[in-house]
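To: structure subgroup
Subject: Chain for Friday's discussion

All,

I'm putting the inputs and outputs inline so they're searchable in the archive.
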Amino acid sequence: MDISIVVPLYNEEESLPELTAWIEKVMVANNFSYELLFVDDGSTDTSWSVIEDLRAQYPAVKGIKFRRNYGKSAALNVAFEAAEGDVVITMDADLQDSPDEIPELFRRLKEERMDIISGWKKKRYDPITKTIPTKLFNAATRSMSGIQLNDFNCGLKAYRKDVVKTIEVYGEMHRYIPVIAKWAGFKNIGEQVVEHRARKYGVTKFGLSRFINGFLDLLSIFFVGKFGKRPMHFFGSLGVLSFFLGTFMALWMIGEKLYHIAASIPYKREITDQPLFYIALVAIILGSQLFLTGFVAELVTRNAPERNQYLIEKEIR
């Protein structure tokens, strides 16, 4: 099978028939063998009934329905496990992504030997309250991940089958699939300018809180990707630095007092009356706690079943 098209959705009953007919038209015109996999993320409208009706009309249509709303990441992860195509295309169900982009994404992925091609909605039909936070979010992600993409959160992306079968998407990490893939060793990540269409039906399902959650998720994935298998390097380094800094300050104050006593110089304040003493004490305690945190995390990591799981691309025996 050439292509698996994955469409996560939540309450998109109006757009599904039009989207399916559009995808079918593009696939037939380009002679692609394909499957169209809808993942109903606990919709409260008639979206699932619409999918059942579409299945009767289009044999390529498949569906998965969640009992409740789990989020886009869960929908994508389940769909990635079920996808059978050599290339997996993800797109939103709200008709803001154009199926006409699929042939070029497929061609580039195959001919340029890319792992991922991410869409870039260069011209957007969104309010300024959404576009400005998006630009800041993308800039922060580029800086922290080293991946030079302009639009990490674009729903229209193309993946090699190996990528989606290797990575795991959880929480709200769907925004960072290119970052997750990079940490898994898939570094051929490209970008393509795609059309962004105005929403035709319904309303957006995402609020401004997604930007706060997105930044926290970015910090999480950066830490897990960099220190997930060696937490002692992170916590231990900070702990040792803090401990020795506090110890140095404490020894400095003690040495200063001993010098004043030996030289018969009047000492103005006791050590415990100085703010530096309490700063040193906090630094020593914090350093000890960080070191112990790293030690415990290292024990947990070493006893985890996936501690020695590595991604092997090829092998000759």
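Points worth raising on Friday:
The mean pLDDT is 86.
The chain has two domains: 3-227, 231-302.

D.
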